[in-house]
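The instructor's notes for this session suggest beginning with a concrete chain rather than abstract definitions. Hand out the sequence below and ask the class to guess, before any prediction is shown, which regions might be ordered.
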Amino acid sequence: MTDSSITVSRRAMLGGSAALCATPGFATAAAPKPAEGKMDLIPTTLKVNGKDVRLSLDPRTTLLDALREHMHLTGSKKGCDHGQCGACTVIVEGRRINSCLTLAVMHDGDEVTTIEGLGTPQKLHPMQAAFVQHDGYQCGYCTPGQICSAVAVLGEIDAGIPSHVTADLDKVSYSDAEVRERMSGNICRCAAYPNIIAAVRDVAQGTKA
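After discussion, reveal the predicted structure:
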């Protein structure tokens, strides 16, 4: 076999490969075909901050996007959008959840409380007032989620729901350790954690008084 015959063989091979890639059948097989048609909208009713709200939603809409984009309740913040920072925490049926990780249509008929539903500038919720008093808000971006989570945490403790650090499962009571454990999913990049704990402690003591 001569050098020229080898050159011709390589060119033939490269040319054949290029022709193969250019054929419609090959291109169709290599690239996934996008979905055709529009997604049907699903009627969904939520009770948000005491008011019934009827929406027609793409079933892929998260609860967070339904609140922010469809109802313009922008108090709940979109942070990581992966359920890791807690900025989007809201209270659904009395339980705190990351609203970025759940679909709105899954909560048809549910009662949802956001930071806008806890208090008003004229009449703050006790937890909001405590955060202000102890300077627990810092930059403020995580604060709505922190406050919603803190309110629900005290409800969990009062209901006797244990956490990972509860020593006696038959006697769940307030402690700073309980609050730190339960709110570990709410990240504050300003590191106002001591102030937040002090605020929650004040409300817990006030509740028991």
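Then share the key points. Helices lie at 3-22, 24-30, 63-70, 126-133, 143-158, 176-182, 193-208. The first strand starts at residue 42 and ends at 48.
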